[in-house]
Structure formats: structure tokens, C-alpha cells
Amino acid sequence: MTVGELERYLAEYLNVAEFQDFTFNGLNIGVRNWEIRGVITATDYDKNLVDRAEENGANVIIVHHGLWWGKPYPIVDKTYDELAYLMHKKIALLGYHLPLDAHPEIGNNAYILKTLGISPEAYNPLDVGFAVDVDMSVDDITSRLETTLGRPREVWVFGNGNVRRLGVISGSGGSFVNTLVSDGVDTFITGEITYPAWREFKKYGINVILYGHYRSETGGPKLLAEHIGAKFDIPAQFVDIYERAM
After folding, report:
1. What angle do CA 210, 212, 216 make, to 5 degrees?
2. Mean pLDDT over all residues of the chain?
3. Which CATH code of 3.40.1360.10, 3.40.50.10540, 3.90.1150.10, 3.40.1390.30 fits the domain covering 108-215?
């Protein structure tokens, strides 16, 4: 399988064309006719991933947070060194942002709900995440997620602690307060929120469970590696580049 063939497959499987993203989804750097020897996935791009790829005999890196954000920026100094190192090693880099948040099978939010034992049939779209009807408590949720996401950074029980409508949007979910209120969500799982958003959650009595931006977005890359390995019989594995959640 070539890099271009994998890119075309992921564009369709992840419904890339459906998203208006502020980053580029697809091949960031590389040559499409390269034959794939192996794949590693990660949440963020880091120069150390290049070495990890070489150690594992992989020549493709797929990340959730790719290189290009918003407007173009100069490739100088440390950025130049990092990209030159990647290109010198002839390793392709692909990135998938919102498509890997929202996917109902291998997305970041789907991973969290699967860990809670909730099947995709129960998911209701909530922007790039999902809302589900459950009969749980905040303590139930944090206990079940501890084996995969670890202990939450913070838990704010602004309601009564009983969860009947759960919302999950990984990463920075603080801006979705109005969406959550409209949907009837009483408990929200995300990575991080701002102080003004904290005040809004408190005002509306929505419980909040925070796992840190990075840790809340490790699930999608894990599931993506498993999917690629199983479907194409290509060596693929997730690499956790940080020792502690960010």
C-alpha cells in the first residue's frame, strides 16, 4: 500500500470533506507513491516521533494535531530543524483533526464512550462529539475511565452528581456551553476549559470532568492504529510521546 492510497482511504473513512477545519487534514509532508512499511500514530507531532518511527521500522506518522494551523507561518529555526529532520529520514506525516474527533467508530469521543460501555447506536451528534442518555453517577464515570484516561485533572459537581444526559467533546470544550444547555446535557467530559466557561458551567449546573487536552485526545489515534493494522495488515501502533497528561 502506498502513502497516497492510505490518504485516499482515510479521506473517505473519516469523512474529511464534511469538515470546515482550521488545519489541514491529510498528507502534511511526504511523497504519495512511497510504499508503506509501517505506521505509528500519536496525538501531537513531535520530533521524537521520527526516531520512534525508525525504531519500529515505520515510514508513516499519523497525528491528531498536525503542522498547519490557521494561517501560514515561516519555517525557520527550530521549526526548520524539525521538518528537515523528518524529510531527511523520508518519513511521511499525515494529520487528522476534527475528523478524528467526530468519527463514531475510531474518534476521540467514541473512544471515551466505548470505555464507558456505551455502544455507537446510542450516540447523538453534539458538534464534533456526542451526547448520550445514561443512568450513572459522576463517580461511576471517573472510575470506569481511570484504566484508560487515568484520574481526571479536575471534577466539578455543579449539579447533583447524577448523570442522565452525558456530553463528550474532547480537547477544548468550554465554548460549547450553549450547545450543551440546548441539548439538555447535565454532565460534560472534555479536556480543558477557560475560567469564563467555568463560570457558565457553574451557572447552568452542568457537572464537568476534565482530563487535560492531550489525555482526552489519545483514544482516537489508538483506535486508528488498530484499525489500520487490522484492515491492511500493516504494522501500526500508537505512541504516547508524553509521560504525563497535558
Report:
1. 90
2. 95
3. 3.40.1390.30
User: Per residue in 174-188, pLDDT tens?
Assistant: 999 999 999 999 999
**Which of 160, 156, 167, 150 has its CA nearest to residue 218?**
150
Q: Tell me if residue 219 falls in helix, strand or coil.
A: helix
Give the integer Cα–Cα distance in Å for 63 and 69.
14
Task: Classify domain 3-97 at the CATH topology level.
Answer: 3.40.1390
Burial of 206 (0-12, 13-18, 19+ CB in 10 A): buried
- DSSP state, residue 153: S
CA distance 200 to 116: 26
Q: What is the pLDDT of residues 121-155, one digit of tens each?
A: 999 999 999 999 999 999 999 999 999 999 999 99
Tell me, what's the pLDDT at 246? 47
Check pLDDT > 90 for residue 10.
yes
| Model pLDDT for residues 158-173, shown as the tens digit of each residue | 998 999 999 999 999 9
pLDDT of residue 244 exceeding 60:
no
Find residue 166's DSSP bridge partners. Answer: 132, 187
Q: Residue 17, class by beta-carbon neighbours within 10 Å (0-12 exposed, 13-18 middle, 19+ buried)?
A: exposed
Q: How far is CA 12 from CA 5, 18, 25, 99, 227, in A?
A: 11, 10, 12, 10, 14
